[in-house]
Amino acid sequence: MGIFEWIKGQTGLWGPALLEFYFHNAGWINGAVLIYGLLLILSWLNLARVSDALVEQILEQAGNMKSAQTKGKGRKTVHLGDFELSWDKAFALSKFPFLAGQSGLLIRRSNLENAQALITDKDLIQRCARRLDALGLRLEGSR
User: Fold this and answer.
1) Is the entire prediction scored with pTM above 0.85?
2) pLDDT digits (tens, 9 = 90+) for 53-73
3) CA–CA separation, 66 and 119 (whole Å)
């Protein structure tokens, strides 16, 4: 018994009809899935571009904080609210009409509100933590 016969036997009445529909329309179905996959990847990259710009803003300001900080023992704790993030500047780098989160399969229109909803404080903290640690700063999430 081959795989197709096993699938037909396990799926009951609707299985053979569904399999037959797929065989007749495989080109269209696979094409639609491929196009959606490409849109999703481009949307992920678009959101990553905005997020990278925010991280660069944080790191630039952290470097200024570190140079202004007197040499002391231990690490200075900073909060995400201590940084002035220009969401407009970061969003200006968005060059694709859609956004999507890395863990999601839904594509959203590219606007500032959707970008702010998709980029959480936790994401920014995770992306900045190691580089800020190298500067002697410890980032906490409270705003």
Assistant:
1) no
2) 999 999 999 888 776 665 555
3) 25
CB atoms within 10 A of CB 134: 11
Output the CA torsion 61→62→64→65 (10° steps): 120
Q: Which residue has the tokens 């509100």?
A: 113
Burial class (CB in 10 A: 0-12, 13-18, 19+), 10: exposed
What is the Cα–Cα distance from 115 to 118, expressed in whole angstroms? 5
Taking a C-beta distance cutoff of 8 angstroms, is the pair 83, 58 a contact?
Answer: yes
Q: Indicate the domain borders of the chain.
A: 3-140
Q: Which two tokens stand for residue 13?
A: 């009445």
Structure tokens at 50: 């905005």
